[in-house]
Q: What sequence folds into this?
């Protein structure tokens, strides 16, 4: 597996997926990982992954500005490649990958995220048919949505241009891989609409249903919760929008209502939301105590891509969810059965209040959501599906 992030500790979406799948796949296969690291703490975390990985090759992230290495940027433009891809390309990681493939005859090479796709070119041509490109999300679609929310005109224009370049590059370059994997049927259809020649399978995101069991309510007062990587622009927008336009109206109806914003690296604009009724935690080692004290999980996302592991997590733990359509996009869920869907502040307020005030409704929603998670979205089920995709590649 070639990935942008070390998948431990699994605090957010992509590392969480990679960690759980690698761990399960390693029960029947020998697995290696090539990835970036950003700190000494991440180097220290490699030891844990070696409990089930045969070997791990790492390269240091080299932070660069948008206008760095202009000659290389010009070459990317001439080749029709989005400029931002060069920030994920490391000669050190190339050498590490070359070392691995020269030493080991791999049956499968999986590259995570399309912006890491250029590492295909470090592999011998004979291995290309044995490769899998996994789309955690569709970058051109995600960035198009993010550009509409970006307040700074210059940055908004850069993101929009990136989305346009990725729209032309992403589905075409993916054709070079033996197989592609999308995390939802909607993502699969979107990619096929841009390139019908792609061979794409759906292997969804999931949750550890054994680890995340139904939680009792430990807090007598009502509370809402949002969990996510808080340096991710769509999550920042979601919480700013929620705390300004939605939460005050809900709190006016529910005495003592609190809001918990749980996730790593909250920027200053999120930290400023912290007050008597809103709590910004930053990184936590275990989200379950925060779910335990919460009544309803809210996912007011207005941008993003892929599928939200935070929704599956809440469902597994027995917390009802109110989400926008974008927030639950790609999950096989039904409004009013597994969760509530609301796409404007008025509807979000109304449906959140219904769940906060109707215990019977909460129990009905959470029971059906938990059943869905166990049958469709447990990591054990998903790992078997991914191994099946591997088995269909040429030997």
A:
């Amino acid at each position: 597996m070639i990935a942008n992030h070390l998948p431990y500790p699994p605090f957010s979406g992509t590392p969480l997926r990679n960690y759980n799948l690698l761990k399960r796949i390693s029960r029947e296969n020998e697995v290696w990982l090539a990835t970036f690291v950003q700190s000494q703490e991440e180097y220290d975390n490699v030891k844990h992954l070696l409990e089930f990985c045969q070997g791990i090759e790492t390269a240091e992230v080299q932070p660069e500005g948008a206008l760095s290495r202009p000659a290389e940027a010009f070459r990317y433009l001439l080749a029709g490649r989005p400029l931002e891809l060069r920030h994920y390309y490391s000669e050190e990681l190339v050498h590490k990958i070359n070392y691995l493939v020269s030493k080991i005859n791999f049956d499968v090479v999986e590259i995570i995220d399309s912006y890491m796709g250029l590492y295909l070119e470090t592999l011998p041509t004979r291995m290309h048919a044995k490769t899998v490109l996994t789309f955690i999300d569709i970058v051109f679609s995600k960035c198009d949505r993010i550009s509409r929310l970006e307040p700074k005109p210059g940055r908004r224009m850069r993101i929009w241009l990136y989305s346009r370049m990725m729209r032309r590059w992403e589905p075409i370059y993916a054709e070079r891989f033996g197989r592609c994997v999308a995390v939802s049927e909607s993502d699969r259809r979107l990619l096929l609409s841009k390139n019908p020649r792609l061979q794409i399978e759906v292997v969804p995101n999931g949750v550890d249903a054994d680890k995340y069991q139904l939680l009792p309510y430990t807090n007598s007062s009502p509370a809402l919760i949002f969990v996510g990587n808080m340096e991710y622009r769509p999550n920042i927008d979601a919480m700013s929008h929620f705390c300004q336009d939605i939460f005050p109206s809900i709190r006016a109806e529910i005495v003592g209502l609190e809001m918990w914003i749980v996730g790593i690296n909250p920027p200053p604009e999120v930290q400023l939301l912290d007050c008597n009724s809103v709590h910004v935690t930053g990184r936590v080692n275990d989200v379950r105590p925060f779910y335990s004290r919460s009544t309803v999980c809210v996912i007011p996302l207005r941008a993003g891509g892929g599928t939200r592991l935070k929704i599956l997590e809440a469902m597994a733990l027995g917390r009802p969810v109110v989400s926008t359509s974008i927030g639950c996009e790609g999950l096989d869920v039904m409004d009013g059965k597994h969760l509530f869907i609301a796409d404007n502040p008025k509807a979000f307020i109304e449906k959140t209040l219904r769940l906060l005030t109707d215990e019977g409704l909460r129990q009905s929603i959470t029971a059906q959501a938990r059943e869905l998670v166990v049958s469709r979205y447990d990591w054990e089920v998903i790992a078997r599906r991914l191994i099946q995709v591997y088995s269909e590649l040429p030997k």
Observations:
- The first strand starts at residue 2 and ends at 3.
- The longest helix spans residues 153-173.
